[in-house]
Amino acid sequence: MAEHFDVLIIGAGLSGIGAAWRLRRERPGTTYAILEARTAIGGTWDLFRYPGVRSDSDMFTLSYPFRPWRGAQAIASGESIRAYIRATAEDGGIMPHIRFGTKVLSASWADSRWTVTTDQGTFTCTFLYACAGYYDYAQGYQPDFAGLDDFRGTLVHPQFWPEDLDYSGKRVVVIGSGATAVTVVPAMAGTAAHVTMLQRSPTYMTVLPERDVIADLLRRGLPPRVAHTLVRAKNVLLTQGFYQLSRRRPERVKALLRRFTLAQLGDRAMLDEHFTPTYQPWDQRLCVVPDGDLFTAIKAGTASVVTAHIDRFVPEGIRLTDGRVLEADVVVSATGLSLLPLGGVELTVDGEAVEPGRTVAYRGVMLSGVPNFAYCIGYTNASWTLRADLSHRYVLRLLSYMARNGYTTATPQERPGPRRPLLDLTSGYVQRSLDRFPSQGDRDPWTVRQNYLRDVLFTPRADVRRDMTFGRQPAPVLEEIR
């Protein structure tokens, strides 16, 4: 017989471990397991191993609210984030509950339970919680470049970085201008002969200190949890305030970002050509440049930026549409990620396949018409964990309400109305996949706001009964509360 749990969590990354921590402390009698496809903990932070991999959010908001970040760097390395997640799981007694090397393939709902099929066997559960993020771990986005077979050098995608890649003394071209490219370029520049960042169009960048001076001061004089809470609040207010200013006064923010970048570069012509985007601030995520390391490499001459379009690959490198050839021994295709809803798990409810793109997001946590199922995604304009932790707390409130009232099922029931995309960024990796993700509506509880300050006030008090149909088994009676 399949092993049964009250709750199954998909994914042992930042979200999955946070969900398990909350579950163990707030519902200690609940049985659970975490199904993790990889053989190690950490999720994204175990997958990405490219040079310089680091957070693009400060660690005081990316870390868990219940476990103070004690690292020296506010913008931390992937290795230190992975160690932090593992230490959280070990200290919380979560490790024995993780089934490593267990990839979830599908989940079917029938008779008030989920039957979860994996490549290691079958499990059943009463409630299924997908904490697998929204990246496709099996493949990144790779454009179909003409002439790739002619290239005599090495092509690398950052998502699958070879451990034995030696780029010392070699000419490197990094295609892209997003967070990955901005990280890889200065990290490789100290070892490679030269690194060129080849971008089709510029990206907004902002320089942040790798260490938080205020955090260091507070941590020297206050208990860790108090200091962590204060720094977290400071950073939330700053980032949310800057985001709101960007949306309401974009021209003012453009001028500020240009001024900051010019102060780093000291070259107005370079600023105009390579660091002045055509879109509005926060139409795409801002790229964080810790301590201005990218600009330092450019000024030192170990890195450079070219803004142009690719014609094709040639044996010696990349030919641009203007006829120039960028010679390269190694090309890093930092061209973006592929998004995958619900970790690629195929859902069926009472024999009917669930297409996520046809559903509507309920409080940004559940799917319309899908019982006893939740998923976890973070903010697009703030640290992932801020929203993830709110999602965990909501799921636990729902489970507690069901237990108190003898309900065994909870199904969000959509109210008809206008729909709009779940994610509000114009980035290519988002736009390529929007139709695969649930939509959102135009009113609560069917909207997904990118506003942590609002959510942290209202989500913990949200009425779990609103637009939710509850059921009891084996009695067939359903109770609907509007």
TrEMBL record:
SUPFAM superfamilies hit by this protein: FAD/NAD(P)-binding domain
Cofactor section: FAD
Stored InterPro entries: FAD-binding_MO, FAD/NAD-bd_sf
Single Gene Ontology MF annotation: monooxygenase activity
Keyword terms, alphabetized: FAD, Flavoprotein, Monooxygenase, NADP, Oxidoreductase
Gene3D superfamilies assigned to the protein according to its UniProt record, in alphabetical order: FAD/NAD(P)-binding domain
Keyword Lipoprotein attached: no
Assigned protein family: Belongs to the FAD-binding monooxygenase family.
Entries under PANTHER family matching the protein: MONOOXYGENASE, PUTATIVE (AFU_ORTHOLOGUE AFUA_8G02570)-RELATED
Name assigned to this protein: FAD-containing monooxygenase EthA
Organism: Couchioplanes caeruleus subsp. caeruleus
